[in-house]
Fold:
Amino acid sequence: MNVIAELTLRDLGATVPGQLSRYSRALEVACSTAPPPYGTRRYGEIYRSAASDPAWIVESLITSAEREADGAGRLWSLAACTEDRGIADLVKQHAIDEARHARWYIAVLDLVFPGAVDPAIRTHLDAVPPEYHQGMETRSVPDSAFAHPVTIDDLVQMNIAEIRTAVNQRLQRPVLLAYCDPSRRDKLTTLLDRLLHDEVRHVGYSAELIERLSATDPAALDELMLSRMRDFNEITCAEVEGLVFPLHCSREECRSSAVCINTGRPDTPPQGR
Structure:
């Protein structure tokens, strides 16, 4: 089994009651057929190399806060348009969590690099997280592409995205602790623990919904999970190449990692080898 599927199912085994047979099989097949780049040793090495620059870490925390806030708005729209109250309530809570995570990433930034953000960026950051809470009525964000009822495709994409975020948080944790002043590490550890706990919980609830909604057509789930895994692999590699730092690997490096981190596809040797 690919390491990402193994890690995910191990996490869920301690948090999700009952069986997830259809979900587990689909995840295992997808990870084996299209191994995620973020499950390779090479990906971790690249991350640690980039993280040797404190300015890169600062930028990555700001980007994480912005992405969590954007994700909260998307989820809020999905919840508003979903008639099944049980599903809508779960997605609403997810949106509230993501908005809170945006604030937490800003808090992490202040703990690890106090005073690093100039006033103009601070004003922007303070306005980024939406103020969602349980007492609010969900309404779709104007002109949102996510103003539709939750589908199994939405859930699969959520699930893979949360898995990837949990992996990145595991890579990020020792780097942040190393940069943080010892007097603030206890507070930082608490925040990082809460972030990872929430990510695993989000993987869990979306996995349970995927399991339930796939009952009538398990084969379609296998195809969908594989298709979306490939999509996320391409997104990940584009981010590594362009948004984080340039990467140009040789085919030998790709073979040693089992997956080409530039394309996200298994590196198939030429015929005859």
Summary: The radius of gyration is 19 Å. The CA atoms of residues 72 and 95 lie 4 Å apart. The first helix runs from residue 3 to 13.
